[in-house]
Design goal:
This is RRM domain-containing protein. GO terms for molecular function: mRNA binding; U1 snRNA binding. It comes from Cuscuta australis. Its main location: nucleus. It contains two helices and six strands. By secondary structure, it is an alpha+beta fold. Strands 2-3-1-6 form a four-stranded antiparallel β-sheet, covered by helices on one side.
Length: about 90
Amino acid sequence: MAKHPVQLFVSRLSFYTTNEKLRALFLPFGELKETRLLIDPRTQRPKGYGFVTFESETDAHSALKALNGKIIDGRIIFVEAAKTTRPGEN
């Protein structure tokens, strides 16, 4: 069975959460392809949300179940499957 990367959307992150902290938070659940914290270009501060891409759907599901609703850096975070559309889909 081939592994397909699965992207999670993480919201309500603290403005003190860094990309490194985000990666460290999700790394125990499996092999990560990418972590991306969105940054406000004007203020250079995190926007409070980001994306985590796992190599495996099983690992992504485990992380989602374990971390959704947890308090991280003083905030309750939400983790859900990212809604992605492929080019040409509407």
